[in-house]
Amino acid sequence: MTIPTGTPTGGVLRLADGPTVGRLGYGAMQLPGPGVWGPPRDRGTALAVLRRAVEAGVTHIDTSDFYGPHVANDLIREALHPYPGDLVIATKVGVVRDEWKGFDAAAEPEQLRGQVEENLVRLGKDRLDLVYLRVGGDGLLFPGETPFAESFGALADLRRRGLIRNLGLSGVTTAQLAEARAIAPVAAVQNRFHVFDRSSADVLAACEADGIAFTAYFPLAAGMLRPGLDLSQAPPGMAPTAGQLGTLDEIAARYGATRVQTALAWLLARSPVTLAIPGTASLAHLEENLAAARLDLTADDVAVLDGLA
């Protein structure tokens, strides 16, 4: 399946009182080189993927200046600037890369101001559409020492100054979401969530109750749904079982779809506030991902997939 030019991608969702985005977007994390570090393996293909995504109707791109670092944002600007009026570019702050290519918390107010300014320059924008505060504690980032309220308050101040349109949170708990909303409006939350991982189900429920967009990162289980990958290299407890994959493949076969498309279609069917941002540096995988927007699962199949986690 391929997505024709301009086809809507999975319906739309309005971010609070801000812009409307397609529910199936694109994540830029895989555009840099291995380990999210350095230049892409094929710069021409990376630029082509970004342009094709927007040509196919994507209106939501997720990125961060620590992807590369700087590489993803520089590619986005080169490929797409001047940006279409309906394109929302979401970015994340609160993290820097160290000399060992690791991801370190950096959420002091002055650090956050510098990161926001760097994103503005790299992306070539006067105001950032959506900025997530990346918070540790989800197993992928060790929490920093700066109090959460102090960090989010600094971003709220930048929003009041007009540098940010919408604020978001990434890798948070329901308690942190409530604490942030007492400081400033939260337009979106970005937590890990996919067909085999429901650890943020309580956060999704809180977002549903209050009309907050829930952006699922790693919607394809960090690429583990791609056939041919060595699942033995996955972190403990992260790899799907053969039984889980078999059920997913069985349902996919009934629609003439792939397991990737079926997992994305389930994610969009799971809740009216979910957004998906599958990432890739492959044009073929991009087409496969976007075609999931046309896959309409039955309620029974959604229920079976609900039971896989």
Summary keywords:
alpha/beta, two-stranded antiparallel sheet, 12 strands, globular
Topology:
Layout: E1 12-14, E2 20-22, E3 26-27, H1 43-55, E4 60-62, H2 71-80, E5 88-93, E6 95-97, E7 103-105, H3 109-123, E8 128-134, H4 148-160, E9 164-170, H5 174-181, E10 188-192, H6 201-210, E11 213-217, H7 242-255, H8 259-270, E12 274-276, H9 283-291, H10 299-306
Helix pairs in contact: 1-2, 1-9, 3-4, 7-8
Mean pLDDT equals 91
Gross morphology is globular
Q: In terms of per-residue confidence, which ranges show pLDDT below 50 for 5 or more consecutive residues?
A: none
Estimated structural class = alpha/beta
Order of helices and strands: EEEHEHEEEHEHEHEHEHHEHH
- Please compute the radius of gyration using only Cα atoms: 18 Å
The main sheet comes to:
8 strands, parallel
* Count of beta strands: 12
Sheet with most strands: strand arrangement: 3-4-5-8-9-10-11-12
Distance between the ends: 27 Å
How helical, in percent, are the residues? 25-40%
Kindly estimate the percentage of residues that lie in beta strands according to DSSP: 15-25%
The number of helical segments is 10
